[in-house]
Amino acid sequence: MPxxxxxxxxGTFVWLGMVLAISFIEAPVKxxxxxxxxxxxxGIGRLVFRxxxxxxxxxxxxxxxxxxxxxxxxxxxxxxxxxxxVLVTQLLLVRPLLTRRSDAVLAAPExxxxxxxxxxxxxxGTELVKxxxxxxxxxxxxxxx
Length: 145
What we know:
The chain crosses the membrane at residues 6-27, 47-68, 74-94, 121-144. It comes from Nocardioides ginsengisoli. This protein has helices spanning 3-30, 38-69, 74-107, 119-144. It is built from four helices and no strands. 83% of the residues lie in helices and 0% in strands.
């Protein structure tokens, strides 16, 4: 397997692991910890997801460069292209909605949850699409080498 494709494989699976660990383990578990209020959990979540998204952008660039300099075929490119498009959609469309919601909750008086929002469901849905795209893309890349 050429080094460029091996780099894309590594970047893809590191990216996948980070999304699974943060979005599907850390995020829901933190709210079950003793003493973690909604406001505290949201404050922590904002920091964690900002860091995750920065890492995702770096990994997306690494994966794209590896795909551009290798010859993976159309399958991995399409699958990983979906993952990149989903990430950009999350950053430009869904995250701003989540930020508005968390701003309102953090500004609400103690004991009030603030306004409800469906943005969280959109984020979870896009995370699921991204996970499938990364898994499929990574597996197809392994077969391309």
